[in-house]
Amino acid sequence: TTPFPRVTAAARATPSARVTPSALITTGGTESNQLALLLAREAHGAGIRLVHGANAHHSLPRAAWLLGLSEPVVVPAPAGVLDPAALDEALTELPGPHLVAATAGTTDAGLIDPLPEIAALCVAHGARLHVDAAYGGGLLFSDRYRDRLSGLDAADTVTLDLHKLGWQPVAAGLLAVRDRRTLAVLHHRADYLNADDDIEAGLPDLLGRSLRTSRRPDVLKIAVTLKALGRSGLGRLVEQVCDRAREFADLVHGHPAFELYDPPTISTVLFRPAHASDDAVAAVRRRLLTDGRAVLGRARIDGRLWLKTTLLNPHTRPDDLAALLKLVEGNTPG
Length: 334
Description:
Pfam families: Pyridoxal_deC
Cofactor: pyridoxal 5'-phosphate
GO molecular function, one term: pyridoxal phosphate binding
Helix content: 25-40%
Keywords: Decarboxylase, Lyase, Pyridoxal phosphate
Protein name: Amino acid decarboxylase
CATH class of the largest domain: Alpha Beta
């Protein structure tokens, strides 16, 4: 059992005496997403159909393939987030059961799907809801930013990864579940690990509710961090990187040599040199990477290539941001 009920409670809907949330430690977001699909398949049968946005992480369709599920249904995400109207149409036309996967913190731009609308559609259509919050889940720690995850509490399962907005070394993934009873399908018996007489004597059951045995101590570093900083301490770190991202976006927006994609939702900023071709943008990124001067991501949105800065260091200073922009400008062909 994880040592932080505030985080696992993010996957809880209406509290009741019969429904208790829980969570498992995983190696990261990919494994958590795979487990979420496995639990859905075991609860609803192999005929369950994954429905996700075009903005979803690649691990979701891959998990469906690994588990022998049907080809997932991909719902358009024209503005970078899942379109509720298109989701409603898909759930209406496709035979169930359905597993809808929403995203809170997309890989490309750090956007958050409209969770309240998606949750309402899942209720209306009787669909199961999974939210991949591997990136955005850390907003739960912040009093200022947690409302951006409104609707998360309606999910049946939630992927979290404290390797991102939790500042943990890998592995630090979690799968939170609204009802701990759904984990019973993971139970397995191996006499050398969980013999009946050992369990009756009070020894821990290493196979009772998890696929993992030897890596379970991964929870220790998370527990120590929470003990040392608490939710409020982690919340301050989250707010610092989100604030720095907004400062960087303002810097880009005010610079005539650059183009800003959009104000950041979390801590990801997409930008590109103005009037540069996609080939030039790609070349700048590779040059800075191979020279060891800056590590920038890349994202293709609306048919154009963007440089991606995901700010995760709370100690980043305004002059660091200005230096990064100057570095990109100085390496862009005139």
